[in-house]
Amino acid sequence: MRLSVIGCGYVGLVTGACLAEAGHEVICTDIDAERIAQLKAGQVPIYERHLDKILVSAGKSGKISYTADAGEAIRFGEAIFICVGTPPRPDGSADLSAIDHVAQQIAAEARSPKLVVEKSTVPARTGLELQRALSAYSRGGNGFRVASNPEFLREGTAVEDFFHPDRIVVGVEDQAAADQLREIYRPILERNFTCPVHAGECPDIQKAEFLVTTISSAELIKHASNSFLALKISYANAVSDLCEKLGANVEEVTHAMGLDPRIGTQFLRAGLGFGGFCFPKDIQAFISLAATVGVDFEILKAAERVNKQRIDRFLEKIGKALWVVKGKRLAILGLAFKANTDDIRFAPALDVMRRLLEEGAEVHASDPEALAKAKKQFPQAHFHEDPYKALEGAHAALVCTEWDEYKKLDWEKAGKVMARKLIVDGRNLYSPAKIKALGFEYVSFGRE
Ligand code: UGA
Fold this sequence. Notes:
This protein is α/β, with parallel strands linked by helices. It is built from 19 helices and 14 strands. Helix 6 links the parallel strand 5 and strand 6 (145-148). The protein is globular and about 70 Å long. The N and C termini lie far apart (57 Å). The protein binds uridine-5'-diphosphate-glucuronic acid.
């Protein structure tokens, strides 16, 4: 099928690339002409595992193309996937101006009926507004149909998540839209593709469920899922605070909790908390949406509060360990909001860095993928590709992202170049006994 993707960020680019890899003809556009020029020149503007490989193969087979001309993209596809940003407004509600702008473009440029699919995370009822806007902007013409098809792609494993989803949710108003979306996802549903992640040898993962719902339900499913996961992390973090006070070990507690299948082991890792461009903004938008209809989502407000306290708790730990922070040389290991991405949006590490710089520390940071993006924001900090260089002369190593590189770091080697053998671990990466056996002072979350 001919498909258009509007917005070439993390979601749009992965969606476009994977749909092309699944056999569709895809055209991608973005308001950022420089980004389109990069893509045309074969450069991938974001780091996402397997994405470069897919873009090269889809480019070679002619299945994917790029244009800075939104009109060209809109006219090409039988279905149009809207993958533009919905950033938070100062009051926490979602800024939907990019969606509105795309609606105006679609109404102006389309010459035939289109299925317009919201991929961007939006508050419930946006699809109905979009339908109304498309009809108003096109003066009732062109027969647009709207669907919601939320994405459940985690950065870092987005390609794998696309090809092996646990569910594909489509919110529609008519059977034809559901049928068209089922056809788009048929290769995924029938496992009829060569998996770029597992090179054709996919493990025996359960097949995806194709769920047809109303548009508002689909929109709500996305917000409710992300908010629940954020809530789970904050719950683990609150338990971790208790463990510290009561002399228990959060890992022992969450591991045992997670063995109950009703709870599950995932998303119970205590530490610096959640960041990124999804959870922090989605939880706010969900609280705000609830407030507009008179529901006080108190439980999510608490989850958000617990998450914000993580930074304070981390800085307290650093302050307590160092006594005086001002003038200390500190090594931050990890800037991305989580491992396997270069994304630093709402990354806890950046809040930590900002606060330490304000306190007069000399900050040296390292990250396997996010250095270029962070450098632009912090001209007063020092950046090193090599983590051992960041650790040279450091009074403390501050672990902020759970990169494998840091799990495997040679601390014996690092200890020799550090000014003081102190690790403050915001992601509980190490066994306290093992790291202390190497002569380090070690502070982590919920395991004191
Ligand atoms: C999240 C969801 O997991 C995806 O399903 C969803 O599609 C996506 O948002 C989205 O809305 O686009 P993502 O933001 O990529 O994906 O990252 P997660 O893997 O969910 O992690 C979010 C944050 O929580 C990270 O900062 C991570 O370090 C933190 N986290 C995660 C914890 O602090 N503890 C945990 O146990 C798990």
